[in-house]
Amino acid sequence: MVKNKRDLRFVKSQQRLYSAFEELLRKKSFDEISVRDICAQANTSRSGFYLHFEDKYDLVQKYQREFIEHGMQIMKEKKHLGIQIIFENVLDYLNTDGEILAILLSNRGSIEIQSQIKDHFRNNAQQNIFPKYNLKSGTDIENCYLTAMLSGAFFGILEEWIHQGKKETPAQLIQLMSENVIPSLKNSELL
């Protein structure tokens, strides 16, 4: 029997599993955590876990999908306010409701998951950042490397922010990126 994803018990059970996973990530690396650990932390059965997720990778993928969907909603609702406000709101969301993702971007995450997140950054750079700042090179290969450089810069800043304990506010981080990263790219020989 497939549960309705809008059923309050289903949602609460899934949130309990996310919370348990987050608590475990604070103590162990992703690779050290098993489904059994998550179930024990959430005080739920393995069959209860499998009602929601196929495995811990599926848990992360569904969490990422929810985060991205919410981030895209923020972008859609705030697009008239400019890219800096959009990114600030997305970082606020990461800071308050995206703790699992933040931990996965730290040394407790897995390389595989971090690679998936980097791919999302690249896609976002191509779809949202390049058009806003008119960052395009002539050839496909130049655009490929420009995308890698830009998304790598943003990802690196985000990783460092998390590693340093998120001391700066999202607004301060966005200001840093806007004042330093984008102008550096515009002034580089690639552009």
List keywords for this structure.
single chain, 191 residues, mainly alpha, Arc Repressor Mutant, subunit A, 2 domains, 74% helix
Helix content: over 70%
Alpha carbon gyration radius: 18 Å
Counting structural domains, the number is: 2
Strand content: under 5%
List the uncertain runs: none
The SSE order reads HHHHHHHHH
Return the average pLDDT rounded to an integer. Answer: 82
List the total number of helices.
9
**Biggest sheet, open or closed, and with what strands and sense?**
none
Specify the overall morphology: elongated
State the total count of DSSP E strands: 0
Distance between the termini: 56 Å
Give a description of the structure:
- There is one protein chain.
- This protein has 9 helices and no strands.
- With 191 residues, the protein is mainly α.
- It folds into 2 domains: 46 residues, Orthogonal Bundle (Arc Repressor Mutant, subunit A), CATH 1.10.10; 128 residues, no CATH class.
- The relative contact order is 0.09.
- The model has no long low-confidence stretch (mean pLDDT 82).
- This is TetR/AcrR family transcriptional regulator.
